[in-house]
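Pair request: fold both.
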Amino acid sequence: MIRAGIIGATGYTGAELVRILYRHSKVEIRYLSSRSFAGEDISSVYPSLKGCVEKSCEEQNLGRVCEECDVIFAALPHGHSVPIVKRALESGVKVIDLGADFRLKNPEEYERWYGLKHEAPDLLDEAAYGLPEIYERDIEKARIVANPGCYPTSIILGLAPLLKKGVIKTESIVADSKSGVSGAGRTPSEKTHFVECNENVSAYGVSGHRHRPEIEQELEKLAGNSVRITFTPHLVPITRGILSTIYAELDFDITQGEVRELYESFYQHKPFVRILPEGVFPRTRWVYGSNFCDINFYVDSEAKRITVISAIDNLVKGASGQAVQNMNLMFGFSEVEGLMVPGLCP
């Protein structure tokens, strides 16, 4: 058994971590912190946990969490994780950051997109990018894991086989992504108000979304050269889910069957990526509440283009489920421990 602490336990990703870790056979939830609900039981904040997890949330105490835990999940907004990571490393505790502080390897890019000077640039190269389907070996050895963003997860997994084999033109990629409202977090805002988002679909971040440099950074590693992506996210009136429809020009003639062989080979030992049957395209409902990423594609031979569609649950494979998958690798557990459950459908 290992002891886990969650800092930021009452946000949506924190609560999802509690839900997943509760059924993990090798983890004891030792510590929960919450700035807004200190002193309250997690089951009073999320009654869905009643009878399963009865544990009080505390004020953040880095000394205590580092003393009592083997792994810390930092489920906080950007700009808040660096002190936690530094203290954890000093104490020999592993840490998984669900925020953005360790995703970008260039501190200048972080400052440009997040408006903050990075306070630990020396640790950026040490942090493993937590996409297990690509960086499994790095994650296994890591002390720090930067959990990917939800949009990047859906897009990178959708494109990885094509870029690794040089199938598409790297300057031609367009990603149209749609996310449920939970992706905006628990704190309400005008755009997540029911009246504003119900019966409405809206684009945002059109002039540049913070996930774009993260997506390009990882796609360039796969391709081995420069990648530029046109990425437009949309808010849709559902609670959970991301559907990314990705378009690119083919660099040479390739058949639908050859692309299928490519995807099936690339993901053959990756338990949470499902390549759907011919003509069956992903739906967010099929991955709701699960750690799966569903993918399918269509090759337009006449136009020499390919369309790739991927679907994930933004709170599970796009956040907390992937964090637990990373934890499993870091501690030598089975990668699927606590996570191999189907989506909730209908």
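--- second member of the pair ---
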Amino acid sequence: MFMIGRNILSLLLIFSLSASLYAQQEKQYKVNTVAFYNLENLFDYEDDPVTFDDDRTPEGKDHWTKEIYEAKLKNMAKVIAEIGRDVTGTSPALLGVCESENRRVLDDLVNQEPLVDKNYGIIQFDSPDRRGIDVALLYQKRLFTPTNYKAYPLMIYDEDDRTKRVYTRDQLLVSGMLDGEKIHVIVNHWPSRSGGEARSRPKRMRAAELNKKIIDSLFSEDPYAKIITMGDLNDDPTSPSVKEVLEAKEDRDDVDIKELYNPMEEMYDKGIGTLAWRDSWNLFDQMIVSHELLKKDYATYRFYKAGVYNKSYLANPRGRYQGYPYRSFVNGFTGGYSDHFPVYLYLIKEVN
């Protein structure tokens, strides 16, 4: 049962958890959505002389025009506006994104009609990735106030020439106050599986090591830190990078202080994914949380549940790839969205 509270910020829906969860006692909660979305090459249509974006220009191989760019923005904004809205009444309070070319495309995105009234702020750094794609965090200014943020470069090198750096995406750490409570968010886009999963695995292991280093630094300052690390990891929840390096656990009851819980692993075990390849599903897009968010007193914001936002309109409606994410570009603009489904989680706390 969902209802709007009279004395709560209009952007936060008050809802009642099931009686079975709370021993027949109806309680009311504030809810905020935190989400992540791979935007599948959200490029503008102008040539950047310092990156390899030539294909995404009107004269390039993809014939990426102003009209196509605007259609892509419209589609991305539609999806973002709807993630979590059925529960919270609004779009995500915090949204990590990847595969955005620059600050301009994000400015254009948050100024689309479905999002402009949400007054999103943007935290983004230009990554050294050769294609020019970045990670970023979008946040509703009325709900979240950033206090610190930093981009951490991932230093990896060509396996055939250890003096040659492989330039890839930074990892973005943003700390701030969500409705008055401190929270840390790390946005990731780990190296791809280009060249094969096994051959490229060391690069993602290094990405996981950097992520673990960032997380451990937060824990060293506060063992009870509320941390969400999210992103397109290009690995599944059971991959060595996640299980062995991050040591993210599937069972929340096994998670101790300064440890991590991965709610996506149970979904992956059930065959749920965020992208499909050769008739099999991967769950590369993940939301992983720290122990402090798992407590069940709900006096402050806690993790409630996570999910894959895979509404039917986001799936390819026909053909060989029916049911796969309806990607926006295959030998031309398709009218679709992204080759990844978004992922999300709900943070809740009890209303006094």
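Observation on the second member. The chain is about 20% helix and 30% strand.
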